[in-house]
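I'll show one example:
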Amino acid sequence: MTVEEGRSGLGTVALQTLGCKLNQAETESLARKFLDAGYRIVAPDHAADIYLLNTCTVTHIADRKCRNLLRLAHRRNPEALIVATGCYVERAAVEVGGIEGVVMVVGNRDKERLVEIVQAKTNGHESCGSGDILKSSPFRTRALVKIQEGCSQPCSFCVVPHVRGRERSRPQDDVIAEIKARVAEGYKEVILTGTRIGRYDHDGGLQRLVERILRESEVQRLRLSSLEPCDLTPELLNLWRDSRLCPHIHLPLQSGSDSVLQRMGRAYATADYERAAALAREAIPNISLTSDIMVGFPGEGAEEFGESYRFCESMGFAAMHVFPYSERPGTKAAVMADKVGDNEKKRRCQLMIELAHRNSRNFRERFVGQSMNVLWEGNKDGIWFGLTENYMRVFLLSHELLSNSIVPTKMVAQHDGILLGELI
């Protein structure tokens, strides 16, 4: 449903998201529910009757960003009903509720009922003004569909199990019905997301779910958001024989040092990770392997950091999300000794980021001169931006209307970290 299809009268809602794809999927679901209830959606930087922030708490930096956004929303629009939900609220509801302007805090467990909760708070009052209504869909050209949430095997550094709870999976029929609805709305790509989608456990697990989606829906692209090394079985990898399954796997590593991985509580060693990556590369042509890398974990000495750096270098990731360790209250790592200083963490981050740029540049260089299918998402000042099946960002100068279309495109060059394309 587009914004203008919503019934008028119940006011305007601005929604903003920090954090993971699971958060993004939940915000998209909330936006649809607000539209169905009769609200209208406006951009986060415009005046709204209701401002809702779906928060993240994976690091102290995420906490700070949440506080800043909530304060900014109040300064912009002091009369708005400001609502905070999500993981930061789940972890520190009193702290979030004490931020100036925040009227309501709603944890993850009540997030799906948030529209009802807001309606009860406002007693169904109508808007005093229309605000600046978005003239197009507030959603993306790629639909995020939640299949699972929660984690029952917490790592020593991670707060997510505390704020998301134990693993729960959606019934397969519900997932497939949602995907069919998104396809009927015109979405070309669906991304399956969750806290740990490899732990999906309904009716045969993730493999069975993907088989059914490919068989029962007309989705043109299906992407899996994140997997663990143990998830990459030959049986699952065989599914990539269907060209609709995108040749991209995000495989979080966290560290390339076995001793650090052990202290982190990760369920694999570097040899296991390397085997899983090799299986994926053998099974899926042109695969893009991307990863998360943490530096400065408690006790990580210069030798262990060197091991991690060299392992990441050898893996040749298409992209690496590099971030410093951030102490999270209530986790095992928070009480570990031998903390790494902030300056050293920054130095190591910079070294890893430089490596990430080199690896990404080398990966993209392989595709210059080739034709690839690109899903074009939008444009700014005549410059279109889109994604290849293997998750490379492409830019194109064109006056044609390309939005939400999959078009064969030749990769002609890379420049400053991006691929430049031309239509065939």
Q: What stands out?
A: The mean pLDDT is 91. The radius of gyration is 22 Å. The chain has 13 helices and 18 strands.
